UniProtKB/TrEMBL annotation:
It comes from the Bacteria. It holds the Pfam family Y1_Tnp. One of its GO terms (molecular function) is DNA binding. Gene3D superfamilies: Transposase IS200-like. GO terms for biological process: DNA transposition. InterPro entries: Transposase_17, Transposase_17_sf. Residues 18-138 form the Transposase IS200-like domain. This is IS200/IS605 family transposase.
Length: 142
């Protein structure tokens, strides 16, 4: 008896594409200040989920500390990663400043919540060495 095949829920299909794109994002508070409370961590997750949904993306995993957050986002190939990041950081910064104004002003100044930089790392799929080997072993046309 052959093993039963189960579809991978992370593989999505579009009109002309089959994809599974994941990115690990890390956002750090401005000046790496400890400006995030536990309540804010929970609120940031809610905001990030809403923004991802607007981009037809999914926040698969989230966690953070008092000076940074980690996100694992599953996104479609139609999304420009830089635009998704700008939206995630911009919307969350604006809402946190509105909802936690006194706390944020006490820890941060100048109208910024997040540092201007961020980390983005692609993930999922086979290791890079396997992909290189696969491409290397493709047939060349004669």
């Amino acid at each position: 008896m052959s093993p039963r095949w189960t579809p991978n829920p992370d593989v999505r299909t579009g009109r002309h594409v089959v994809h599974t794109l994941h990115v690990h994002l890390v956002f750090v508070t401005k000046y790496r200040r400890n400006a995030i409370t536990d309540a804010m961590l929970t609120r940031i997750e809610e905001i990030m989920r809403e923004v991802c949904a607007d981009f037809e993306a999914e926040l698969k995993q989230y966690n953070g500390a008092h000076d940074h957050v980690h996100l694992l986002v599953h996104y479609p190939p139609t999304v420009q990663l830089s635009k998704l990041v700008n939206s995630l950081k911009g919307v969350s910064s604006r809402r946190l400043r509105q909802e936690y104004d006194n706390h944020v002003r006490h820890h941060l100044w100048g109208g910024h919540f997040w540092s201007g930089s961020y980390y983005a790392g692609s993930c999922d799929g086979p290791p890079l060495t396997d992909i290189k080997l696969y491409i290397e072993n493709q047939q060349r046309p004669v």
